[in-house]
């Protein structure tokens, strides 16, 4: 099968690659662009560990074909911090111990950041439903929800 | 609490610093099993049986071998030929080999039969389709009760343990019977005897990270393996046995691990990747898909259980009896013994008798799942106690307090308990506002106790001091839930240096002595104990250097707040000598200073928990919600309380999934019907409430700081506590898990029909 | 002599005895003495047993001391998650 040439932007940097038309965006991010922060937990869009943004919209990168990235902008967990300054969500997840094994953390951070950009003052239920597509098996979500709510509060107070 | 009487004022223990691997994990830098890459690396894929039970008549790999990009194909012939079937532990490696790659028979849907390594993951998957396997389907059985019946197909001969009584079906691979007193006499003394039958379905540990590894093995017998595992020394040992390698020639490095819960104590893909690498003479990466994880790795046992308990009107339990049948897949090893031994452990019983059956079926080999065997037993036992309390009009907490095991009680499994904290958890639950909070209409409250043994195991730890007085600590137990933070806290406590001055790593198999798997809630207990001892070893050496400098005897120097100081007025007057002052000159005063400790600590204290749950049932749809949840558990001593809370909350959440949603569903054809997270639905954020926690601290006499393992006990009470809450809310006793909406509706309709 | 309590499942392998008396001052010595008296116990012991000595559950260490008046129970060895 012939390979397809794709031009895209990842975390603000131009990126190009050759891919098999069957390969997913997640495959290419991990195997070709060496951005292994996005994880494959299921490959069927059920666990959210591969969450990225595509032109600012939250998607499961395992459900996006790599060729669909042509001409679009991708955001991954590797792009959340600015230089050495962590995003407030990242800082708060460490403080709250909102992770145990950490495999779901990249996807949850990408999803939570996307929530706070749309809704800076979410209720607990809104956070829970927004993150319902991101499975965590370790924490019972308690500390994750608290970390997101508290980050939202800090960011509101800072703005 | 009481620990402060035992050992005064901790400086670091009990504080809540940020975890050392936090930054890596929030930035995506942390490297998990599938995140490794090697030059010249191939990608592998495994062909799996579509049949529940079938003779493998022929495997033709010739077309696949000729396919583009294919570099190696392995079948059973590429593994050791020296292992033989045998019962019990003697047959353990044989059983692992049989599971890792099928021999002449495929034993379950998803059983590996061949594997391919190719230049890309897609090429490897494409090549699988070109492997021709000729199967002869055999009769199969996937249900535990049916597998014990006389007409059930025999799955494998010659693996049953010698302790299995004669006359049972060959599918019964193990048998446990224990107890004391006279249960019949006890039942005769009771005012009320309740006997009931309970069923639980197999559930998966459900770690979000599928099994993954990167293997390299040369013709010289030297190998390197990177994998996500709970125990890399075990992986090393098993791979060596399955591939005829010398153990020490295979160096295994544990990656960051994306959840395990017991499921990554077993070995599945690592020997396959190594065999492919040896054949292709290239590094091979092998990553399971989610469907492979469900079909071919460790679910817990499904069970069929009978529980009978007698009680007096005042709540005294007069006798208890249980029969526990555990379905363990196509291999021996279901934890029927643990189920039986844990079942009645929370209660001081004069008369108790328990039997466990380990039963084989055509399903994947069960693997340990957080306190393996105990949660199911608690479901049966605590449901019957709840029913007795309901019928006798007794308070369920007071009744449990009345019968609770305490120090000196003869345990249901035989010996006397040492210091334990069950009563303290019950009292804390009773005092918690949750227990007396009003319920809304349609809601029900349930409680349950739970018990787990905990474990010690082989442990080796090494600690090296740097010239600037900072500390490198190497432990051998993979960190699943933040244990590096706990290790650093314990080392800081002994050395008196800041927490941030300690760098903790999980060492590879070449760098430390054998470390048993991270299981049995042993890490904070055993690696923690070894860390304390290793730090004390370093302190002794630091004091010796100070003594030499001061010209006084070594025993005239003690260690305080990170400094050597004279031990008393007779030792002489010297200003405190800080650690950095000693380490800066250590090269010229005797050489590098390290501390180490190797042992098999045998003082893991057992632990208990009490959970309180409120639930709500929608009578129209049968949907259940957990509206409030409180975990009360004895941690002995919480080293890092936030991570102890995390273990409590995680265990409760997994229990909620097990109780309400999760189950392996097999069709008539013996195939797993729901091998995806879409259909095997684990709890999501919107399914759960906040989970409150109460840490009770009744110190374990077997640990210097009183630690008891906390990881597993947290999943023991939820099944029963939730079942009791749902039964109260629905007004009908629920005897089968999961209590999914169709089952609740069925129970409600049956009750309406009966009424 | 040390009194060793067997779980019921083991009794058929030890002439039906519930309690066996052996001469031993360590866990390892106790297991050896048990097998010497009742060779039928060998397989079960090889399959993995813990020995509870005065309530402490000894999973591995054969050198753990035992006193003549110790309370000793054989138990099946734990496999955790």
UniProtKB/TrEMBL annotation, chain A:
Residues 4-80 form the 2Fe-2S ferredoxin-type domain. InterPro entries: 2Fe-2S-bd (IPR002888), 2Fe-2S-bd_dom_sf (IPR036884), 2Fe-2S_ferredoxin-like_sf (IPR036010), 2Fe-2S_ferredoxin-type (IPR001041), 2Fe2S_fd_BS (IPR006058), Beta-grasp_dom_sf (IPR012675), Diverse_Oxidoreductases (IPR051452). One of its GO terms (molecular function) is oxidoreductase activity. It comes from the Bacteria. CDD domains: fer2. Keywords: 2Fe-2S, Iron, Iron-sulfur, Metal-binding, Oxidoreductase. Gene3D superfamilies: 3.10.20.30, [2Fe-2S]-binding domain. Transmembrane segments: none annotated. This is Carbon-monoxide dehydrogenase small subunit. It comes from Salinihabitans flavidus.
């Amino acid at each position: 099968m012939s390979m397809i040439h794709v031009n895209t932007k990842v975390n603000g940097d131009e990126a190009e690659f050759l891919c098999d038309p069957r390969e997913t965006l997640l495959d290419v991010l991990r195997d070709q662009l060496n951005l292994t922060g996005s994880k494959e937990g299921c490959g069927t869009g059920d666990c959210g560990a591969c969450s990225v943004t595509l032109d600012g919209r939250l998607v499961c990168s395992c459900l996006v074909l790599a060729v669909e990235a042509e001409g679009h902008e991708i955001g991954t967990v590797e792009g959340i911090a600015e230089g050495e300054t962590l995003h407030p969500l990242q800082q708060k997840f460490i403080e709250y111990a909102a992770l145990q094994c950490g495999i779901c953390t990249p996807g949850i951070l990408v999803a939570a950041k996307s929530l706070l950009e749309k809704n800076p003052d979410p209720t607990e239920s809104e956070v829970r439903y927004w993150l319902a597509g991101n499975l965590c098996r370790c924490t019972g979500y308690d500390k994750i929800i608290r970390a997101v709510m508290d980050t939202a509060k800090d960011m509101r107070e800072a703005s | 609490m009481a620990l402060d009487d035992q050992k005064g004022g901790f400086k670091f223990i009990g504080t809540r610093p940020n975890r050392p691997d936090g930054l890596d994990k929030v930035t995506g830098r942390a490297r998990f099993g599938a995140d490794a890459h090697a030059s010249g690396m191939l990608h592998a894929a495994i062909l799996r049986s579509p049949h529940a039970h079938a003779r493998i008549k022929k495997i033709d790999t010739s077309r696949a071998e000729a396919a583009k990009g294919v570099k190696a194909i392995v079948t059973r012939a590429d593994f050791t030929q020296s292992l033989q079937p045998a019962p019990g532990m003697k047959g353990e490696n044989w059983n692992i080999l049989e599971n890792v790659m099928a021999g002449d028979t495929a034993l379950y849907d998803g059983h590996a039969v061949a594997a391919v390594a190719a230049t890309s993951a897609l090429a490897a998957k494409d090549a699988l389709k070109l492997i021709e396997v000729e199967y002869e389907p055999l009769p199969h059985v996937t249900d535990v009760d049916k597998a014990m019946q006389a007409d059930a197909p025999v799955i494998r001969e010659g693996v049953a343990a010698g302790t299995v009584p004669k006359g049972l079906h060959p599918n019964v691979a193990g048998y446990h019977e224990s107890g004391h007193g006279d249960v019949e006499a006890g039942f005769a003394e009771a005012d009320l005897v309740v006997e009931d039958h309970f069923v639980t379905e197999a559930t998966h540990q459900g770690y979000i990270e599928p099994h993954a590894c990167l293997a390299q093995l040369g013709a010289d017998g030297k190998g390197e393996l990177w994998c996500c595992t709970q125990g890399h020394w075990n992986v090393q040992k098993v791979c060596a046995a399955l591939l005829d390698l010398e153990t020490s020639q295979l160096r295994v490095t544990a990656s960051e691990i994306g959840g395990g819960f017991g499921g990554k104590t077993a070995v599945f893909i690592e020997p396959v990747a190594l065999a492919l690498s040896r054949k292709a003479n290239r590094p091979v990466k092998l990553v399971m898909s989610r469907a492979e994880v469900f079909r071919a790795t460790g679910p817990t046992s499904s069970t069929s259980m009978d529980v009978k308990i007698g009680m007096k009107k005042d709540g005294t339990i007069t006798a208890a009896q249980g029969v526990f049948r555990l379905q363990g897949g196509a291999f021996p090893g279901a934890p029927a013994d643990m189920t039986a031994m844990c079942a009645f452990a929370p209660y001081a019983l004069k008369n108790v008798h328990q039997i466990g059956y380990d039963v084989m079926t055509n399903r994947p080999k069960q693997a340990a799942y957080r306190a393996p065997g105990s949660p199911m037993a608690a479901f049966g036992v605590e449901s019957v106690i709840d029913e007795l309390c309901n019928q006798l009009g007794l308070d369920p907490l007071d009744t449990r307090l009345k019968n609770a095991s305490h120090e000196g009680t003869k345990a249901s499994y035989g010996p006397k308990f040492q210091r334990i904290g069950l009563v303290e958890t019950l009292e804390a639950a009773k005092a918690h506002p949750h227990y007396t909070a009003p319920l809304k209409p349609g809601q029900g409250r349930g409680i349950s106790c739970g018990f787990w043994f905990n474990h010690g195991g082989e442990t080796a730890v090494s600690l090296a001091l740097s010239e600037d007085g900072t500390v490198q600590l190497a432990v051998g137990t993979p960190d699943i839930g933040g244990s590096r933070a706990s290790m650093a806290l314990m080392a800081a406590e002994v050395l008196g240096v800041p927490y941030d001055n300690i760098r903790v790593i999980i060492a590879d198999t070449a760098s430390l002595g054998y470390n048993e798997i991270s299981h049995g809630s042993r890490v904070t207990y055993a690696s923690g104990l070894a860390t304390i001892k290793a730090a004390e070893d370093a302190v002794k050496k630091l004091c010796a250097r100070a003594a030499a400098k001061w010209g006084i005897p070594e025993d005239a120097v003690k260690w305080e707040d990170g400094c050597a100081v004279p031990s008393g007025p007779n030792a002489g007057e010297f200003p405190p000598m800080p650690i950095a002052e000693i380490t800066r000159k250590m090269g010229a005063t005797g050489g590098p200073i390290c501390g180490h400790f190797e042992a098999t600590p045998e003082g893991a204290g057992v632990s208990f928990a009490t959970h309180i749950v409120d639930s709500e049932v929608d009578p129209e749809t049968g949907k259940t919600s957990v509206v409030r949840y409180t975990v009360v558990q004895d941690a002995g001593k919480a080293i890092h309380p936030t991570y102890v809370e995390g273990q409590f909350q995680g265990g409760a959440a997994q229990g909620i999934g097990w109780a309400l949603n999760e189950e392996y569903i097999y069709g008539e054809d013996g195939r797993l019907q729901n091998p995806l997270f879409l259909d095997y639905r684990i709890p999501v954020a919107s399914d759960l409430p906040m989970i409150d926690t109460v840490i009770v601290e009744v110190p374990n006499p077997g640990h210097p700081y009183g630690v008891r393992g906390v990881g597993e006990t947290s999943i023991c009470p939820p099944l029963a506590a939730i079942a009791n809450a749902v039964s109260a809310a629905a007004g009908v006793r629920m005897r089968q898990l999961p209590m999914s909406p169709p089952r609740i509706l069925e129970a409600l309709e049956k009750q309406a029909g009966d009424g | 002599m040390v009194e060793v309590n067997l779980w019921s499942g083991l009794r058929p392998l030890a002439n039906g005895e519930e309690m066996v008396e052996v001469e031993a001052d360590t866990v390892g010595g106790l297991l050896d003495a048990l097998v010497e008296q009742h060779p039928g116990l060998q397989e079960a012991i090889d399959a993995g047993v813990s020995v509870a000595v005065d309530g402490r559950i000894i999973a591995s260490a054969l050198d753990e001391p035992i006193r003549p008046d110790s309370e000793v129970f054989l138990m099946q060895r734990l496999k955790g998650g």
